[in-house]
Amino acid sequence: MSNVVRNGENAVNNATTSNTFGKSVESQAQMDDAAQAGASNIGSGEMLNLYRLEPLAAPDDPRWDNAPGHGTLIVAARTSGDARIVAASKELDFMEVDAAPADDVTTVNASAFRDDKLYTVIEIEHGRAGLRRGIVEGTVSVDTIISVQV
Questions:
Q1: Which residue from 57, 93, 127, 145 has the fewest beta carbons nearer than 10 Å?
Q2: Helix (H, G, I), strand (E, B) or coil at 80
Q3: Distance CA 43, CA 75 (A)
Q4: Helix (H, G, I), strand (E, B) or coil at 96
Q5: Per-residue pLDDT tens over the stretch 33-50
Q6: pTM score > 0.90 for this model?
Q7: Per DSSP, which regions of the chain are E strands?
C-alpha cells in the first residue's frame, strides 16, 4: 500500500506503508492452514460451516476437459473459499505421481473445485460444533491425472 496522498499537500512519496503483511492472527492461521491444505485436524474444536459443492456447468462444457468433475460434495470448512480448498486438496496431485505438470509444480490450482464456472458453493449450515474440516459426504476420484487414468 502506498503512502501517496491527494489532499493538496506536498507529502513525500516513498511508496511504503507502515502496514505489515502476514502479522495478523487471521493471516497467521491462513498461512498455517496453507501448509496443510486439506488436513482434517485443522478446525477441530472450532465452529465450522457445512457447504455443498455442486457442479454448475453443463456436462458438455469444454471446461470439464481440463478439470474432471466429481459430482456433489458436502464439505465442512470455515468459509466457501476454504471449502473449495479442502475439496481440491483431496484430488491426486502431480507431486504424488511420476508425472510432470505443464505450468507448475502442483495441480491444486487446476482443480474443478477452484473454478467458479464449474462448481458453485452453497452454505447449508452455519456455525456447527463437532465437525472436522474435510469432506463430509461424497467422494473425490483420484484419476484426475491422465497418467493414472485407466
A1: 127
A2: helix
A3: 12
A4: helix
A5: 666 655 555 555 688 999
A6: no
A7: 48-55, 73-77, 119-128, 134-137
